[in-house]
């Protein structure tokens, strides 16, 4: 099958070339051995510790104050809904926000605007089953508050290649912005190795900077370990384990070795060593989910999500810093009102579209 695919792209006069035959046979042999290993896709470098950072830890879900969400789906196929968000006393959350989203099997669009006039938009387009392009843009009042991010991920059978650009521009007589490329490859059924390179230039009067980092991920029967060696001496490791069907636990360790910032005088020859450790657990119950984590700075956080009724979900969040002797509390209520005609529009046996979120 691979031989037929290669021959379809070769001109007639190249099929009998000795060098072409050697390269073709080498490629086919390599592909067959690679296929025999039974390798699976390892994910992306950006989400190499997703099981710990997104599934177990609650750092990205933490909030304070009061919040109320009102969601109303208008269609299931395609997916189309809007929501209103009201917040009081929350840090980082505006008092009011309006969000609308549209999703099909190939495209996902989401827009959000708050009471301060800050506009954010997301567009994901799935060109093929393997290639997805993502675009994020935000505009806020005031100069220099805009942001544009472009991503493309190619997902192969046993690898993932990604490119990303943040605020790219060529209007100042040269290329500026941040550009990131990453590649993660499975080498055994459990082990994956990857590399990530970054090139950035803030302005034309500044010199470009390049950074290189390496990562590894090992997947066991019920546990996953990952490590990432970043530029400038930063090391991040994580360990995730499924204890039971409803209990997960994770540990994250970050070490920073910054040369020239130690205690060897102003000229500096020493090394500043900093580190932090976070331990967390997640419990899934029949109608609720509880997460808790504790880090080495003495900060204890917990999050409880409880579905009291099919359309109503209540969320409690709490954080206590033992060293600073401070505490934060948050409560949120989410209500989803689905009209009867929308709930039955797709039929009882049909499935919603696989939206490229």
Structural class label: mainly beta
3D shape: globular
The proportion of residues in beta strands is over 45%
Gyration radius, to the nearest Å?
Answer: 25 Å
Which residues sit in consecutive blocks of at least 5 with pLDDT less than 50?
A: 1-7, 263-268
Averaging pLDDT over every residue, what do you get?
87
Number of strands: 19
Query: What is the H-and-E element order?
Result: HHHEEEEEEEEEEEEEEEEEEEH
> How can the largest sheet be summarized?
19 strands, mixed, barrel
Helical content (DSSP H or I, runs of 4+) = 10-25%
Number of helical segments with 4 or more residues: 4
- Report how far apart the termini are: 33 Å
How is the secondary structure organized here?
Layout: H1 2-9, H2 18-36, H3 50-56, E1 65-75, E2 79-88, E3 96-103, E4 107-114, E5 119-126, E6 131-139, E7 147-155, E8 159-169, E9 176-186, E10 191-201, E11 209-219, E12 223-230, E13 234-242, E14 247-259, E15 271-284, E16 288-295, E17 299-309, E18 312-321, E19 326-336, H4 340-343
Parallel strand pairs: 1-19
Antiparallel strand pairs: 1-2, 2-3, 3-4, 4-5, 5-6, 6-7, 7-8, 8-9, 9-10, 10-11, 11-12, 12-13, 13-14, 14-15, 15-16, 16-17, 17-18, 18-19
Describe the protein's architecture and organization.
This protein is mainly β and 357 residues long. Helix content is 11%, strand content 54%. It contains 4 helices and 19 strands. The protein has helices at 2-9, 18-36, 50-56, 340-343; strands at 65-75, 79-88, 96-103, 107-114, 119-126, 131-139, 147-155, 159-169, 176-186, 191-201, 209-219, 223-230, 234-242, 247-259, 271-284, 288-295, 299-309, 312-321, 326-336. It is globular and about 70 Å long. Mean pLDDT is 87; it is low at 1-7 and 263-268.
